[in-house]
Amino acid sequence: MARAPLPGWRQTRRATEAPTDARSPTLPGDRRAKLLRWLSEEGRFAADSGGLLASLCEKLAALGVPIVRATTHVRTLHPEFRGVARIWRRGESTEIRTPRRGIEFTSDYENSPIQYVVKTGQWLDAALDETTDRQFPILATLREQGMTHYVMAPLVFSNRVVNAMSWATDAPGGFTQADGEMLRDLVPVFVPVLEATAGRRIYSELLATYVGRDPGERIMAGAVQRGDVHRLKAAMLLADMRGFSRLTDELPEERVVELLNGFFDLVVPGVIARGGDVLKYVGDAVIAIFAVPGDDPAPACRMALAAAQNALAALAGASPEIRQHVSIDIALHCGDAAYGNIGSGDRLDFTAIGRDLNILSRLELLCKEVGRPLLMTDAFAAGISEPVFEIGHFELRGFRRHQPVYGLGQQDDTG
User: Fold this and answer.
1) Number of C-alpha atoms within 13 angstroms, CB side, residue 354?
2) Which pLDDT does position 377 carry in this prediction?
3) Alpha-carbon distance 272 to 359, whole Å?
4) What contacts 24+ positions apart, CB below 8 Å, involve 268-273?
5) Helix (H) or strand (E) holding 33
6) pLDDT of residue 86
7) For the chain, what are the domain ranges?
8) Looking at residue 7, what DSSP letter applies?
9) How many CB atoms lie within 10 A of CB 108?
10) Distance CA 116, CA 133 (A)
11) Model-level pTM greater than 0.70?
């Protein structure tokens, strides 16, 4: 049932059949040359892997290969997702799936064509029938949808990671030998094109994981020179885990890491859900910004406040174990920052610096002093509609002018 494409490709042509594929007016060699030329000259400029797959399938269909479904499966570098699968279906938009890490240990994966191809490094060529239904349950689903023949090929990238690509047809006789040769010949040319195209997304996601979405996009666009900065106006949020030093003294390092990740899980999802960008993890604190795209900072301030309230509500609903060890102090401010590259030599950091970020960090230190988990400056309070009250004017270390500090009205305070 599983066999290499050549020799042994599924023979569907009758002995009396002419060597030219009846579905295409061109000779097989002409089809191959057209396809490979397109891949090397135009396909490599596809905006993303989904567009590349769709264009390839359309080219194959135009050349007479009866494809109705095709997929690519590419491993990625992401803390949550193991890879990215793209599924093309004739007449439909390309679907994107992101299987989570750990899927490789599930029975669905263990009994899948992709597991077979990745493990063996061999092509899978299957005429869909009851035998294939039993060995690969996913193929039973395809057969119910009218598929007659399924082929999956290993795609070995330059780092030797085995990825995969598949094709399926509903043609009564399945793929012909000429179709099979076409698919076999395109793979060596397709692999480097897909690797380069997928690599752009992988590197972009990797940068976003470690420096944030907007910084990652700027770096990918070429902002890599030291001193390459620009100014931005933003609502700023700093959330700190209170009592972290005590925990590091009392608990094993592994337990402290678990609690720290639990703390970030309380804060970060609310930031991301409201369009914020996590700029930096600083020990037991996280700094996030909500960019102000125009002249009105109010929408960004509202999103930052909602993210802060979400974090405090998440803590209130957390497990007793988390609440036993984790307390959150949050400071909110709105102002300007210089945003870009700092560092030395070939070791740079993409970050934000400036007077207003210093105000933010000093404000967070007041939370414990005044006994409130959420404080904001007057600049931030002016951008929200919720009731606030002035707690007082405080001297912030390093600043001559006393800073008016505000808290939310009692009816909205989660502290």
Assistant:
1) 18
2) 96
3) 23
4) 269/310, 269/314, 270/306, 270/307, 270/308, 270/310, 270/311, 270/314, 271/237, 271/307, 273/307, 273/310
5) helix 28-41
6) 95
7) 28-210, 226-412
8) T
9) 11
10) 15
11) yes
Provide the pLDDT for residue 53: 95
Name residue 234's beta-bridge partners.
291, 335
Q: What is the mean pLDDT of each run of 10 residues along the chain (415 residues)?
A: 38 32 52 85 88 93 93 91 93 92 86 92 92 89 94 95 96 92 93 91 84 81 82 93 86 91 95 92 91 92 97 93 91 90 84 88 91 95 93 85 86 43
Residues 407 and 387 sit within 8 Å (Cβ to Cβ): no
Q: Say which CATH topology domain 226-412 has.
A: Alpha-Beta Plaits (3.30.70)
Enter the tokens of residue 314. 């998440």
Which of 373, 376, 371, 402 shows the shortest CA–CA distance to 389?
376
**Degrees to nearest 5, angle at CA 72 with 69 and 76:** 155
176 CB contacts (<8 Å, ≥6 apart)?
12, 13, 21
Residue indicated by tokens 């174990």:
321
Residue 16 CB coordination number (10 Å) = 5
Q: Could you give the 3-state DSSP secondary structure of residue 257? A: helix
297 vs 356: CA distance, rounded Å: 15
The residues, any chain, with a CB within 8 Å of residue 234's CB and separated by 6 or more, are 289, 290, 291, 292, 300, 334, 335, 336, 337
Residue 336 CB: number of other CB atoms within 10 A?
Answer: 16
Looking up tokens 């988990």, which residue turns up? 373
pLDDT at 410: 56
Residue type at 105 in one-letter notation: F
282/290 Cα distance (integer angstroms): 18
* Assigned CATH class of 28-210: alpha beta
Which tokens in the block code for residue 115? 């597991």
Q: 95-97 and 285-291 as β-strands: parallel, antiparallel, unpaired?
A: unpaired
Among candidate residues 411, 406, 410, 414, the one with its CA nearest the CA of residue 301: 406
